Amino acid sequence: xxTSKKSFPPPPATKPxxxxxxxxxxxxxxxRIAAKMKNAPPAVAQSSKESQRRKERxxxxxxxVAGGAAAVGATAVASRDANIKAQARGTxxxxxxxxAQPGKSAQVDTLDERxxxxxxxxxxxxxxxxxLDERxxxxxxxxxxxxxxxxxxxDIKTTDILSDRKTVVIASHQQVSAxxxxxxxxxxxxxxxxxxxxxxxxFEGSFENEGYTKTEDDDVxxxxxxxxxxxxxxxxxxxxxxxxxxxxxxxxxxxxIPAAVEFDPDDKGKSVVYLKDSRTRKYGIAxxxxxxxxxxxxxxxxxxxxxxxxxxxxxxMTPSAAPTSVLFSxxxxxxxxSFEGLMDDMDSLLDDDTSPQAQALDWLFTVDTFFGSxxxxxxxxxxxxxxxxxxxxxxxxxxxxxxxxxxxCGFPTDNTGxxxxxxxxxxxxxxxxxxxxxxxxxxxxxxxxxxxxxEDGSSKNVQQIFMENNDIAGTFPVEFALLPELALLxxxxxxxxxxLPPEISEFRSxxxxxxxxxEMTGExxxxxxxxxxLVTLTIGGNDFSGTLSTKIGQLTGLLGLFIxxxxxxxxxxxxxGELRFLNGLFLQNSPFSGTLPTEIGKLTQLTTFHNSNxxxxxxxxxxxxxxENLEILIIHGxxxxxxxxxxxxxxxxxxxxxxxxxQNNDTxxxxxxxxxxxxxxxSKMTNLQFFLIHGNSFTGExxxxFGDLPNLDFVYLxxxxxxxxxxxxxxxxxxxxxxxEYQLQMDCLDSDSxxxxxxCSCCDVCCDDSRELCLNNQP
Length: 779
Description:
Blueprint: H1 23-38, H2 48-66, H3 74-89, H4 105-118, H5 128-139, E1 153-156, E2 166-168, E3 171-174, E4 176-177, E5 180-181, E6 190-192, H6 200-203, H7 206-209, H8 278-306, H9 325-338, H10 346-351, H11 356-366, E7 373-374, E8 377-378, H12 385-400, E9 418-425, E10 430-437, E11 451-456, E12 459-466, E13 473-475, E14 488-490, E15 495-499, E16 512-514, E17 519-523, E18 536-538, E19 543-545, E20 560-564, E21 570-571, E22 584-588, E23 592-593, E24 608-610, E25 617-618, E26 632-634, E27 639-640, E28 656-658, E29 675-676, E30 690-692, E31 697-701, H13 704-707, E32 714-716, E33 721-725, E34 743-746, E35 758-759, E36 765-768, E37 773-776
Parallel strand pairs: 12-14, 13-15, 14-16, 15-17, 16-18, 17-19, 18-20, 20-22, 21-23, 22-24, 24-26, 25-27, 26-28, 28-30, 29-31, 30-32, 31-33, 32-34, 33-35, 34-36
Antiparallel strand pairs: 1-3, 2-6, 4-5, 7-8, 9-10, 11-12, 36-37
Helix pairs in contact: 1-2, 2-3, 11-12
């Protein structure tokens, strides 16, 4: 291709670092060379005839210098040409040149032919001598110029010959042409450590860059082992070979000069290693050291800037890769900002490596790859912030409750992150196997066990978390307040402890809270009743204490209130009547006291009322009859007294009435239980199936209408003071038509001192209240 020519200013008399010598100096120098050559290894030592030729060449060139650069004569020219031929052949010069060895013509012819093959000169009209002369002129900038060898002024520089290296003695040429100065050609001494490396590796194009153009002659036979460097020159194992010269800029002291190399046509597959002179090497080494120091310093600086946390192999609780500090800081600040008002100490928590908050952040950066990773580094720049926060919040819960100890699906055990769970399907009445994902797996958090998400276009928000009986230990997950669409939090049958925090009010979308059968304590915070969206509140099976706040009336959208098996006491507030949509009310197995407020009658949508095992006293308010939708009324074990109110019999949808074992003579408050008679209005309660009032103080005879109820299955009337004949044994009684299916118990067992209180031939169990004894009455 085209090459650009570079112009140089006129060169100085001598190139810096090259000593110009005269005739006397040349003689002394030759003597030193001869002395050193005697001590050189045989592989590189030169013969005495070669020393003689060199001496003759130096003398000839020195004579040219002394004559003011005049023609040196035919003898000097012949000497130069002979030397070139001899160096090209790797043997002595022809006999026509001074110092030639006779008897070598056959060897010369063979080498000439090999040189022509190597340099692609075969079948050409030129002789090897002409071709080599032309190549030397091209390499030294003399091609196509009107110069002759007589115009050369040669400076010689020598070096010691090392025993284990090749040393090339290089000449510094200064071309002088009529009317024009050419660039100085400064060739320096080079020590070649590895004779197998070609010049093309380091210096391809150096001639063109310095104003010299590659010629056709440079493109030698590519099938040979010659270099693709201009001239295709390689080093060999023999003696001195061709000298390669390169143009240099005299203004540049640090110009890199490729060494002349020895050429051996028989040497295959070897190349040249170039070395600079001592000063250049020192500068080069210094430059390399500075560069390495800069790179290392920059790398350390970047590492100190970028590394903030450690990383771990996935899945692991310990760190194993490093995020960038900028991204880590941005995410940390985003999390801290998101937790403002919820956890104001989030900053310090993130600084504590042992906190669940810090562990979750480390996991998100160093283990989790759900959002994509590059060699363990998170690529979080372009993801949805809400999705990032959602995954982080769930991870905090997993670390806070030590999910690896959950009964199932708490921590990934393989690369799939999948787990199998046996669940009971009430619709089928059998156990089914469900495939889910482990928590802290690389899978979508919406596929983690117990997590259900609502998808709206491209967004996926956690809507439900349901994990029952999974041995989850820890405190209430306040961080779930940052799940904006969380509507159901159902984690019963676990080991959650601590109090229900006031931050519960931040669960603004929460509709169902079920934390039954855990180990939580303390009073219910008033903030709980600020959850206007709450539909179901189930907090039974914990050790909550205190009273039920009057703020309960604020939960006007509540459909179910389930407080049972707690330590809560005090009266049931009258504000309970504000829960107009309530259809399930459980206030049981807790020491609630006082009387049942009449406002209970406002709960017209109520279908189930459990108020058993409390210490509520007094009569059942007549307003209970307003609960037109009531199906189940359970008040057994409480301390009610008095008769069933008249409106009680208006509960025509009532199927189950459990008012047994109310009589209590052992612990305060002592009560005789419910009393009075059963009204004939019971006939309106046609849906009754269970009527259990044993263990009270009812009296009188049972009305016949009682025996006509079509759906009665279980009737427990024992341990009362009824008398007369049971109305259920008539041949037309619906109860008798279901022989073997019903259970009927009355005080129909004779005592030791008196006959039975009730005659009941169809009762399957007869009891004696005085002895608190019941026996099977059927054969």
